[in-house]
Amino acid sequence: MAEAPSDRSTVKRYAERATYDRAAVHAVLDAGLVAHVGLRTDRGYPVVIPMVYGRRGGELLLHGSAASRLLRNARVPSVEVCATVTLVDGLVVARSTYNTDLLYRSVVVIGEAIEVRDLDEKRHGLEAMVDHLIPGRNADARQPTEKELRSTMLLRLPLTEASAKVRTGWPIDEEEDLALPVWAGVVPFRTVYDPPLPDPDLVHPVEPPPYLSPYAGP
Amino acid sequence: MAEAPSDRSTVKRYAERATYDRAAVHAVLDAGLVAHVGLRTDRGYPVVIPMVYGRRGGELLLHGSAASRLLRNARVPSVEVCATVTLVDGLVVARSTYNTDLLYRSVVVIGEAIEVRDLDEKRHGLEAMVDHLIPGRNADARQPTEKELRSTMLLRLPLTEASAKVRTGWPIDEEEDLALPVWAGVVPFRTVYDPPLPDPDLVHPVEPPPYLSPYAGP
């Protein structure tokens, strides 16, 4: 089992649910769509901003205007952030209210986010992001112009200090509660994708592309 | 339309999607399950922790061990946090990769989180949390003992400085892209609940309670 890469990325609570294994971290990140990115504002208080992201190898690419503005205002090359991705997989219906819980997978990444300024790097970063959100879309959507790339605010965050935490299984009830005449178990969740809805402004009566078909519902 | 309660809770980006209306903020919070709570650690860097929560009127109740530990270690009565809840409602499939987006609803709350220490208050807080996660469960699950209440770490966060942001509708494409021969539209997401799975340790062959039936799938 992989070791925690640093003290601050070591999971303290329910440590037995934690892993620092690269593949496990990547799997959660690849399954999520939104990262909640925490950063300290110039006035000291923390803000948490939902951001879309992509992954390129051991790096997360964050679409972050607020963070980028912060970097520009502070005239620093990088900012310390914490990016957390959580997927809720179900309800844990325990016999006691105290042990009520969720099934979940989460990843916490702590590190220095660096603004991407090079236009080619931005292009690849935007590609990685679109690949993550809508795999296949890069092949037929219009590619970004130079002007668009210039106004894209992109951060890269190394996945060096990352941990994953996964809660699966059954309620964890007290021994003496097991015989209580109350139902216990889990309720699994799933995200389903309804059929694509065409933009009313669609000029050509084109069909949704095949790469949207996994989204056509269960 | 409600005004922003403070400068720091004013939405700057896509401000036209923002609202400070109490009912809109509550609606997003009530539909979510996990808040991503950002706080500054004693060593300065921010951490973002996923927490389950409940709402009681104009107050959020956070189940927050890390934040509570921070308060205890620092021996302070409150800590500045930012709690963000995001619901992803779909993909926005624009004609250009640059305008690729998500449909979402999000709420950002900034404020002083105060640790709840009074046992009765904790009891009510835990009830609010369970009511939020599994409405109806408080009626038949075992209620917390005093020992459990003592080890429950609960924070309350006023919803005074809160904003909601909602992205609905269609892709926002450039005028000159509208005639491109590429499909555009949205792919709506939904969370579905699969049938409850009984705990293998269930002693009595009880049926899942009726309040879990909305979870029985679409």
Description:
Two copies of one chain form a homodimer. Chain A has 218 residues and is an alpha+beta fold. The first copy, chain A, has a single domain, classed as Electron Transport, Fmn-binding Protein, Chain A (Pnp Oxidase, Chain A). The first copy, chain A, contains four helices and ten strands; from the N terminus they run βαβββαββααββββ. The first copy, chain A, has helices at residues 22-31, 65-74, 119-133, 146-151, and strands at residues 18-19, 34-40, 46-56, 59-63, 78-93, 101-115, 154-158, 162-167, 185-193, 197-198. A six-stranded antiparallel β-barrel of chain A has the order 2-3-4-7-6-5. Chains A and B meet through strand 2, strand 3, strand 5, strand 6 and helix 3 of A and strand 2, strand 3, strand 5, strand 6 and helix 3 of B. Strand 10 (197-198) of chain A pairs antiparallel with strand 9 (185-193) of chain B.
Task: Give the arrangement of secondary structure elements.
The structure is a homodimer of 218-residue chains.
Chain A lengths: L17 E2 L2 H10 L2 E7 L5 E11 L2 E5 L1 H10 L3 E16 L7 E15 L3 H15 L12 H6 L2 E5 L3 E6 L17 E9 L3 E2 L20
Antiparallel strand pairs in A: 1-8, 2-3, 2-5, 3-4, 4-7, 5-6, 5-9, 6-7, 6-8
